[in-house]
Fold this sequence. Notes:
This protein has helices at 33-43, 57-71, 88-92, 94-97, 117-127, 193-203, 222-239, and strands spanning 2-8, 48-53, 74-79, 104-108, 111-113, 131-137, 145-149, 156-161, 170-178, 207-211, 216-218, 254-256, 261-262, 267-268, 272-274, 279-280, 285-287, 289-291, 296-297, 302-304, 307-308, 313-314, 319-321, 325-326, 331-332, 337-339, 342-343, 348-349, 358-359. By secondary structure, it is of the alpha/beta class. Strand 2 (48-53), helix 2 and strand 3 (74-79) form a beta-alpha-beta unit.
Amino acid sequence: MKAVILVGGFGTRLRPLTLTKPKPLVEFANKPIILHQIEALKDVGVTEVILAINYQPQVMRSVLEEFEMKVGIKITCSQETEPLGTAGPLALVREKLSESDETFFVLNSDVTCRYPFKEMIEFHKSHGGEASILVTKVDEPSKYGVVVLDEETGRVRNFVEKPKIFVGNKINAGIYLLNTCLLDRIQPRPTSIEREVFPTIANEGQLFAMVLTGFWMDIGQPKDYLKGLRLYLDHERRNSPQDFSRGPNIIGNVLIDSSAKVGEGCIIGPDVVVGPDCVIESGVRLSSCTLMKGVRVKNSAHVSGSIIGWYSTIGESVLVSNMAVLGEDVHVSDTMYLNGVVVLPHKEIKSHFVKPEIIM
C-alpha cells in the first residue's frame, strides 16, 4: 500500500522557521511534522510514501535516508517543475500508484490529528465508492468550505464554500483514501482535488466522508501550530503519559528532551516543548511555547505563546510573548521586551518591540 504526502511549496505562512528548513522538516513536539505522518502510515501497513515537493528538494532528499532507516519504509520524492495544486501531483506519479489495484492515501503535510488510518481503510471497504475523505467538525462552519453529507451512509452530497446559512458543520480534514481508477480523472496540470475532482465524484455518488473523532488542526501557521500543539499534547498525555515531564515546577503538559538542561526555580508549562540540547537557566518561566534545538534561555526570562528557533538565545529577564516567532540563531539582549514580533534568522535584538512587527 502506498501514500502520497502533498508537501507543496515555500511554507510562507510558517516563516521565518521555513527560511531554515522546509516546512515538513520543522519540528512539532520534537519530531519533524512529516515524520508523525510517516510513522502513522507505517503502522497500518503502508510500504512506500511518495513526497510531492517543489521547494528545496535537495534538503528533503538529504534526510529521507535517515527516515527510511528509522521507520523501515520506502520514501521517494516526486518533484514538480511548477506548482500543481493538490491533484496534479497525483497524475505525476500515476504509474507508480497504478502498479497494483491497492487503494492509496493522500495527505496534506500540514495536518495533525489522531490519524485514524485503520478506521478509514475499514470505512472505505464498507461503502465501495471511489474515494473516502476525512472530515472534522468545526464551531464556525461559515469560515470554511463545508462538506454536506448523508449522516447515515456518509455519502457526500455536495460542497458549500463559506455558507451564510447553516448547511452543516463538517469540513475537509485533508486526508483521503482513493481507488487507483480515480487517477484517470486527473491530468498532470495545476488542479485542485477539492474543487475540481471531488465535486464530480460526489455528483456520481462515488465520494464518501468519514467523520473524525478527536483533535484536528492545520498547523501551517504559528498561531495554529501552537493551538495544534496544545491539542496534540493533551491527546498524547492520555495515551503515553510516561513521555511527559513531571515535577513540582511542571504545570500541565510538558515535553522536555532528555538532553536539555533545566536550572533551579523554573516554572514550566502548560503546553511547552523543549527541544534537544536546550539550556534553561534559573528562574525561567515558560508557557505555551516551543523551543527548538539548541535554544538558551537565560536567568529569569519569560517566554509565552511563542516559538523560538534553533540555536537562539533569550537574554536575562527578557519577556517574549504574544505569538512571537524567532528564526534560527536570533540573539536577544538582556531585559528586552518582544511583543508578537517575527524575527528573521541570524539577528541580534538590542531594543524593545512593544508592537508586533517583522524584524528584517
